[in-house]
Amino acid sequence: MAATEKITIMDIARRTGLSKGTVDRVLHNRGEVSKKSYAKVMEAIQELGYEPNVFASLLAKGGKHLIAVLIPAHENGSFWELAASGIDKAAASVTTVGVDIVHFEYDQYDIDSFRKVAGKMLEAGPSGVVLAPMFQGETESLTEELQQRGIPYCFIDSKPDTNGYLAYFGMPLYKSGYLCADQLTGGRDVLSVLIIRVRRDRFRQSDPTVNRRAGFLDYMMENYPECRIDNVFIDPNDPEETEAALSTYFQTHPDVRHVVMFNSRIHLAVPYLQAHPDPQRRVVGFDNLKANMDALRNGTVSVLIGQRPDEQVNLAIQTLAEYAILGKLPPRKDHFMHMDILTSYNVEDY
Amino acid sequence: MAATEKITIMDIARRTGLSKGTVDRVLHNRGEVSKKSYAKVMEAIQELGYEPNVFASLLAKGGKHLIAVLIPAHENGSFWELAASGIDKAAASVTTVGVDIVHFEYDQYDIDSFRKVAGKMLEAGPSGVVLAPMFQGETESLTEELQQRGIPYCFIDSKPDTNGYLAYFGMPLYKSGYLCADQLTGGRDVLSVLIIRVRRDRFRQSDPTVNRRAGFLDYMMENYPECRIDNVFIDPNDPEETEAALSTYFQTHPDVRHVVMFNSRIHLAVPYLQAHPDPQRRVVGFDNLKANMDALRNGTVSVLIGQRPDEQVNLAIQTLAEYAILGKLPPRKDHFMHMDILTSYNVEDY
DNA sequence: TTGAATTCCGTGCACGGTAACGGAAATTAT
DNA sequence: ATAATTTCCGTTACCGTGCACGGAATTCAA
Fold it and tell me: How far does the CA of residue A228 sit from the closest CA of chain B (Å)?
């Protein structure tokens, strides 16, 4: 039924005896208006409860915003591939409101590539940027540049200790370690746990697994202070070495039945684990990579903890789009995503 | 960078040597166009890849769509309160594109109230309707009416066996019973299980718990064929009777440590369970009602399985809005939501 | 007091599409 | 052949804002 009659810029022009041009000037406070007129207009806006018509506005100024997404290149089946998939989802909904999205990728092991791509990104003149902070120093200088240019930006996955960002979307890392420990032990007494770790990437300076491991260890300390915790390091690019490392470990520790990994690469351990099955074993990993989910289905992995990276970039893009188009600020800056528990029984509809 | 030059209705008018009026007529195929012109325009549209400008369109036809949500009244802390909260979320994003949402509530125990409210809803002349089917017959006649009037509608929560709906958003019910059983047993041998049930609502003809229970029982049959399964019925409006029923049951079956409930009301059992704690007990329920989540936090309930009812109505509304505004059909009709596993360790950020 | 410089404001076109209106062309009826 | 319809199409006035342009009113300089 007849919704509240929309009041337009003309209504408040008539009300104040001024012209729409003047009203428009105060709305976008771009000067050339006398104090008296300014006050009158503001008052009328209040009283009539004027709200601009987004369509007309966008139509008039020819829309076309651009949002840039700057994340590591997504090798097949990697974590960042999942994140990248959120771009398409967001694109589908924001292109209809005149927003384009450009995806910039860099090599997460190469600072120079980050610098270069960041430069290109700036040249594209975006109205907003989605960032995954990998290199601390570089991220800092980039965000400074963005701030100077007045370009809003959002962090996903993790965030530095700065404060100028528009919003952050990510998983509560420390808590995720806790949850992980709880899922691994399943309330049963546990005597020993194996943590599989990737040899530290030299360049990566912002590493989510640090906090996660801290949470995990705290949980274990509190609940199973006697539990022995072993670490095995593997090289992500060398399957044979991985196989050998695990093989060596389990030969000397055949009693260890709880295995965990704090990054998205539990699938690297799957070939060995699958070849040496143990119905009593419990394996917990992170992130819903295809390879990980397959391992869930075939029973090699017991539980995955997911954080919906695609939702993270989707939300970041939506937030930037709303800000760019309507100037709307998000209700809060930090958005901690729900941690999804995935088992073979609920992985299908994920 | 210079985005693809938007091609307008005028471009294709020039291209075909016709006027924009004619082009508009074929775009909305409202007749009064010769076959030859029609074909020419269609071809030009294809070739140039024309896409209408939503803003201009909405501006011209004065926007203002209305979407109606027809779900049971949300008594405090009920399942439907969660669903209703999705309305606000959706409202925030669609009002900016000129869509209003009206919320109609009926008494889920009173068919007449459904009829009355449905009538009122139709009078409001919505461009789309979100429905939770409760009364089979009534739902059927309502959807027929909607179909006749050409009003699209979406189901949430559950759906009847019809086919005219635009989309459905809900949990895979049978599977959720499976998941529930897996979470309840946690891979351990289980000898006996208690199912707490609500005495059948006489009127409710579409009951999600039926399928859920079927899935649960199948899982138990397959994995623990020896397990005894008991049922206790309670009256949702009589806490004392509930207390008594559980008390009686557990006095004669003190060994039963696995308790499950297939609707959203596990919180009804919480007072008893909390008063008679058992660290060995495992309790699984459904839906993230506040009372249920509290029980999760204090340890009375072990696991809740969530289906994001708010997301369901949110998505349903978004889908209807896109259809109403842009005529865009959803990629598929049936959308099965992910089943969230909630424990005390990941309930906070839900 | 007159001319120049400011300050302030109204006018009018553009944005891309919608739909009513009316008229030309083609068809049918008389 | 002419009138009466039908069919088909172009014209035009919006929808609500943004913004450039130019002019009136006011202030300042000479």
Answer: 23
Question: What is the distance between the alpha carbons of residues A159 and A162, in angstroms, rounded to a whole number?
Answer: 8
Contact A346 B339 (CB under 8 A): yes
Q: Shortest CA–C1' contact from A30: which nucleotide? A: D19
B29 CA vs D2 C1’ separation (Å): 35
- Supply the pTM of this predicted model: 0.86
Q: What is the pLDDT of residues A116-171, one digit of tens each?
A: 999 999 998 899 999 998 888 899 999 999 998 889 999 999 888 889 999 999 99
Amino acid at B37: S
Q: Does B160 touch chain A (CB under 8 A)?
A: no
Nearest CB to B55 within list A63, A326, A343: A63
Q: Is the Cβ pair B98, A349 closer than 8 Å?
A: no
CA closest to D11 C1', residue:
B21
Q: Which residues on chain A are in Cβ contact (under 8 Å) with B178?
A: 345
D26: residue with closest CA to C1': A34
> Quick check: A175 and B326 CB within 8 A?
no
- List CB contacts of A63: < 8 A, sequence separation 6 or more: A97, A98, A99, B55
DSSP character for B31?
S
Give B203's DSSP letter: S
Separation of alpha carbons A90 and A319, rounded Å: 10
Q: Which residues contact B310 (CB under 8 A, 6 or more apart)?
A: B82, B83, B85, B86, B89
- Nearest CA to A292 out of A281, A309, A305, A282 is that of A305
> Given this model, what pLDDT does residue B8 score?
92
Q: Which phi and psi angles does B208 have, rounded to 5°?
A: -60, -25
Task: Test A97 with B97 for CB contact under 8 angstroms.
Answer: yes
Rg (CA), chain A: 26
User: Cα separation of A121 and A104, whole Å?
Assistant: 7
Q: Which residues 6+ apart lie within 8 Å of A12 measured at CB?
A: A23, A41, A44, A45, A48, A50
